[in-house]
Every structure is written in structure tokens, then in C-alpha cells.
User: What shape does this take?
Amino acid sequence: MKVLIVYKSYHHMNTEKIAQAMAEEIGADITSVENIGSYDAKSYDVIGFGSGIYAWQYHKALTNAIEGIDVIPGQKAFSFCTYGKKIDKFEKIMGELLKSKGFDVIGHFGREAFDTFGPLKLVGGINKGRPNEQDLEDAKKFIRDVVGS
Assistant: This one.
């Protein structure tokens, strides 16, 4: 199965760590969202999209890329994100966006990660050391489960 993982990671590169763990586990192609134009999205069986959560939203570069991507109706996709504090809407928001583009959404992976947003910076942040090895192992298990490798 041919898989592409597209991510936007910014402050602490938390999402990049998750994306790399997934890609290495199954031999997927991986790219930052800035380079998505170098890939033919229609040539992939599955595309994963992920970013950190910034002010309770996915990074705009990622959502803009999804809105502009050409897909084959029913093409499979999954989402993933890293965040300081989990809010249940993260999975729903991305799922709805992917479905609106015609993707068949096959899963979502989210994980707490180091966060220094706003006033958290004053106390040195939260979730220090995350994603940790267990988080990366969980990401690898998720990707094996959703793509069947």
C-alpha cells in the first residue's frame, strides 16, 4: 500500500516526531506541508495529514493544503495531531474537512505533547518530554492498524 504522510510542525517539532515514527514504521513517503506540491496525491492509496494544535485549531497551512488538494473520491485518509490539552473536537474538525474533500476517513491519532502556548510559557510549559517513547510506539501501532502493514 502506498502511503503519504503530510505534516506541519512548528514550535517544538512534536508533530514531526510522530509523523517520522509513522513513516518509518511502514516505509511511507513523508513531507512537510510546504512541499506537498512535489507529490502526486492521487497516486497514493492513503494520505495522512497532521499538525500541532495552535490556539485550538489545526495549522492553517495544513487546512489550506487539504482544501486545495486533488483527490480521487473515496481515497483513504487519516489525521493526527499533537496538543497541550486534548479537546474532543480535534478529531471531528479534521474528519469533517477530509470528508468534505471526498476522502474516506480511516482513523485519527492524537497525543499530548510539550506545549508553551501563551501563559504556559511562564511556567516552563506542560507535557515536558512528550512525545515520549511510548507515544511514538503508540503512533507506530496506530499506523500499522489503519493501513494494515
